[in-house]
Amino acid sequence: MLSKGVNNKHYLLFLVVALAILLAGVGSYGFTETSEARYAEISKEMLSTQDFINPKLLGIFHFHKPPITYYITTLGYSIFGINEFGARFFLQIAIVLQMALVFGMVQLLYNDRKIAITSSLVYFAMPLVLISSRNLTTDAYLTTFILGAIYCWQYYTTKGKIVGVYLFNLLVALALLTKGPVALLFILTYIIVYKIIFKRNSKISIHHVLGFGLCFFLASSWYILVIINNPGLWDYFVTDQLISRITSHSFNRSKPFWFYIPLIICLTLPWWWIISRNFKRKVGIFLNVGREDRLLLISSVFLFLIFSVFKTKMVLYILPMFWMLAILIAVQLYKVNVSIRNTLNLAYAILMGCLFMGILGLWFWKPQFIQISNATLIIGIVFVILVVSLLFYIDNGVPEKPAIMGASFGAALILLSTSIMAHNGATFNSTKEMIGFINNVTPTKNKTIVVYDYLLSSIPMYSGDNPITLKLRNNTTDREVQFQKNEDWKEELWDINDDVMVSRLDSLSYSPNTYLIIDKKRGFKSDLKYLEPHFKNRREFVKWMVLYNK
To answer: Are 125 and 407 spatial neighbours (Cβ–Cβ below 8 Å)?
Structure first.
């Protein structure tokens, strides 16, 4: 079984299979609003303009994030074309690299191949990891660079190889160029906790100085270039993008302190159960665990508390700490008794059964809000058979069995969610179907698409032209135009609190080949409803209503 006969070839095969599963259908569904569509469109504009210094979204400077994610996405576009597969391809590579780095970290900390492989399997079973592979944002790349930097630091600390110092600083720079200073929280937390627990003193050599110089030069290079070209950006980066995200209700992402508590519990089901069981049985377990376990546990708890204090919270913000949880869980699998492992195995079989029954019910019921295709149903059947086979085939005495069950469930989640999203793009907030309809009605480029009080970044992807965005009160339309060199942006961003712009909208509403997109839930401003009869046709989608003149 796995405990007796695993070698590097088996692990490489597992990574290849994982990559194949991650890539399956990754380009089969449209870009989702708002975050993914925003990153995809900025990267497209960067590639088309060849301006790799100043990111732009619908022609307006967009300095919310450093450029590494855009660079990686433009590389995907260059290889595979400007499409969904090209945009998401390197996300899947990032996940596989993370799994390999988890394996490497366990080898350095525990020097145990079985735990290393089990940790990778557990990591692949983490829903948050899988979510990051299906949505183009900075988080998967940030996690890869953070984990890579920590691995190189640990490699240098354990092996004494100087190359680790330079690679560490290079990867820290890349992490900083992916999402800014937040990357340092994860890296420094691990290093400081390690030095305290393992009682390691810091020894500075010329290589550390040169490595730091390399890191500082690379990490600051983009910031220096854009600040020189755009006076006022320094204050914007520090005040709007750093301090406000920590202390204020910026970007409508403010959440209560306890926001991550239920998330952690749900996202680590059913694994958290084995840790809680051990704590109940042994009151002094924390004092008895090894230094490696304490390192990962304390680092995780500290990071969890830090991000709980921050006002701005998103689920994927805590992704870079999940590799530590995966290793802790894998270590526990070799310490708990068979009955607990059997419970975990049964839990995954039940989860798979519940997932399949939900899919079967939706397939049979055929509700309007979601479509379950025959292909989705077949995938569900195959994985039910696989999970049940693993449950009975693998001996209960194998410590890795719950990890294998978990990874199989993770594979099922990936393939089933991909298949569902491919047939329900509008439900998952993609404009692909809606813009496809508009393109069919007016195949030529001589059409005008107007979006009411919402920034739909994916429209140029599917229509070929930028829309006119009507700005009222929605935060997505609050563009940061203070860095624009001229006022050309006003042609595509209309403030309809301005009577002049309302007059222009009135005239446009009579024009042929004009399409007005309105959020069905939020509706149209009451004093603008007189415009609706100007449009002769109407088509409703899941979230949007399209008023248009042919």
So the answer is: yes
What residues are paired with 32 via a beta bridge? 430
SS3 112: coil
For the whole model, what pTM was predicted?
0.94
- Between the alpha carbon of residue 192 and those of residues 72, 171, 358, 508, the distances in Å are 31, 18, 46, 61
Collapse the DSSP code of 273 into the 3-class scheme (helix H, G, I; strand E, B; otherwise coil) and give the result. helix
Record the tokens describing residue 542, joined without a space: 């899941």
Assign 4 a pLDDT band (cuts: 50, 70, 90): very low
CA distance 458 to 435: 9
Q: Tally the residues of the chain.
A: 550
Phi and psi at residue 516, in whole multiples of 5°? -110, 120
Which residue has better confidence, 190 or 265?
A: 190
Q: How far apart are CA 40 and CA 20, in angstroms?
A: 23
Which residues have C-beta within 8 Å of that of residue 535, sequence separation ≥ 6?
509, 514, 516, 547, 548, 549
Is residue 371 helix, strand or coil? coil
Please write the tens of the pLDDT for every residue from 29-53: 999 998 999 999 999 999 999 999 9
**Structure confidence by residue, pLDDT tens digits, 171-206:** 999 999 999 999 999 999 999 999 999 998 878 999
Please give the full DSSP string across 448-515, using - where no structure is assigned: EEEEESS--TTHHHHHSSPPEEEESS-GGG---GGG-SSSGGGGTEEETTSHHHHHHHHHHTTSTTEE
Average pLDDT over residues 497-507: 93
Which pLDDT score is estimated for 1?
39
List pLDDT tens digits, range 211-245: 999 999 999 999 999 999 888 888 887 877 777 66
The pair of three-digit structure tokens given for residue 335, joined into one six-digit string: 């310490």
Rg from Cα positions in the chain: 25
Say what the pLDDT of residue 203 is. 84
136: DSSP letter? -
Closest to 154 in 3D by CA, of 286, 290, 292:
292
Beta strand pairing status for 544-549 and 514-519? antiparallel
Secondary structure of the chain: what % helix, strand, coil (to 5)? 65, 5, 25
> What are φ and ψ of residue 312, in 5° steps?
-80, 125
* Per-residue pLDDT at 288: 61
Amino acid at 486: N
CB of 269 closer than 8 Å to CB of 329: no
